[in-house]
Amino acid sequence: MDDRLPMNASGDGVLDFIGFRPTSATVIKANRLVEEASERVGNGGSGGKCLTARVTHAALSVAGYGLARRSGGLFTGYPVVGRQDQMQASGGCLTGKEDALQTACAWDPRVSDSSFFHQTTFSLPLSRAGAFVQEVQRLRDLNPKALCGLELYDGILIRYVKSSTAHLGKPAAAGESADMVDFDMTYYRSRDPRRARLHEDFLEEIEQMGLFKYGGLPHWGKNRNLAFAGAAGKYPGMRRFLRVKSAYDPDGLFSSGWSDMMLGVTTAPTKDAPGCALEGMCVCSRDAHCAPEQGYLCRPGKVYKDARVCTKV
After folding, report:
1. Which residues contact 147 (CB under 8 A, 6 or more apart)?
2. Are residues 201 and 60 in the same domain?
3. What is the helix (H) or strand (E) element at residue 258, kind and residue range?
4. Where is each L-gulonolactone oxidase 2-like C-terminal domain found (predicted)?
5. Shortest CA distance to 199 belongs to which of 94, 296, 72?
6. What beta strand segments (E) does the chain contain?
7. Distance (Å, rounded) from C-alpha 53 to C-alpha 228?
8. What is the pLDDT along the chain (313 residues), one digit of tens a residue?
9. Which of 27, 104, 119, 150 could be disulfide-bonded to 108 (CB atoms 3.0-4.6 Å)?
């Protein structure tokens, strides 16, 4: 909750986030082709991503990211006050008119060359969040351009949540604050699962730092497979949840191979195979897990030395 105004403040503000509006299929394709071009250049392409990120951020900022003081209006400045259901949810592209895909959601797979990305999202107790942020800043300072790919997707989003006693809620660790911080990252993904990504070592290090060094709780729907390795052990209520699940859904109607894997019921979420680290199917332990033919080898992290990341050498 943003409490910079009193609870009884009135307003009809809305959020129609620009990135979630119906977008011209031509624009969707052009954006993807620009990003693909930067990737093909290799690490030298970070300058192009940085420029695109600055332009995109400036345009979104001027437009208030889609905020308006009334539906159909334009952004005229802060504060914008409105109801929770109008301010904290958006997605106009899902309810846009059917126009034979002249416009679509930016990620609509029916549009060739639509947006395609990975996501990494986890929660940390407030008491650990500061140290994590400081380490990310140290990593950023080594090469600020390496994180421009994140900035293209609004950077690292931060949300504040409370711990929960629900079986799969976010548990408060003994002696730590019940307040939690969500860190949410979206970044480029190649449609070729064997293709390495620009500065992927930086993003893999942040991912492993948050999940493993600081014990982040993975978001159940917004992560790569490696995030769920050992995840069941982070939830004290997991066994109780599985008992309730078995009692109320004995036939597994609401389960799938994917959910059973994440919950630690069946096979491990990771695998040992050539190139497995590129798609987050493993943490690399040997060069073959990366893309040696493209010059990407398995190396220790730059700040979090226990990380093992695919680095361009």
Report:
1. 140, 155, 199, 202
2. no
3. helix 257-262
4. 274-312
5. 296
6. 14-15, 23-24, 67-68, 103-104, 117-125, 157-162, 179-188, 217-218, 296-300, 308-312
7. 30
8. 455 667 777 889 999 999 999 999 999 999 999 999 999 887 776 888 999 999 999 999 999 999 999 988 999 999 899 888 888 877 788 888 899 999 999 999 999 999 999 999 999 999 999 999 999 999 999 999 999 999 999 999 999 988 888 999 888 777 777 789 999 999 999 999 999 999 999 999 999 999 999 999 999 999 999 999 999 999 989 999 999 999 999 999 999 999 999 998 998 999 999 999 999 999 999 999 999 999 999 999 999 999 999 999 9
9. 104
The structure's pTM equals 0.92
Q: What is the 3-state secondary structure (H, E, C) of 28-41?
A: HHHHHHHHHHHHHH
d(CA 126, CA 162): 10
What phi and psi, each to the nearest 5 degrees, are found at residue 121? Answer: -140, 130
**Last residue in a domain, options 95, 124, 142:** 95
| 264 part of a folded domain | yes
Distance between CA 25 and CA 17 in Å, rounded? 18
Let me know whether 181 and 247 are in one domain: yes
Token digits for 165? 């006693």
- Any idea what the CATH number is for the domain that residue 160 is in? 3.30.70.2520
Give the pair of three-digit tokens for residue 153. Answer: 């997707």
Residues 245 and 168 in one domain: yes
Buried b (16+ CB within 10 A) or exposed e, 159-176: eeeebeeebbbbbbeeee
Range of 88's domain?
9-95
Instruction: Please report, to the nearest 10 degrees, the dihedral formed by the alpha carbons of residues 147, 193, 279, 282 taken in order.
Output: -130
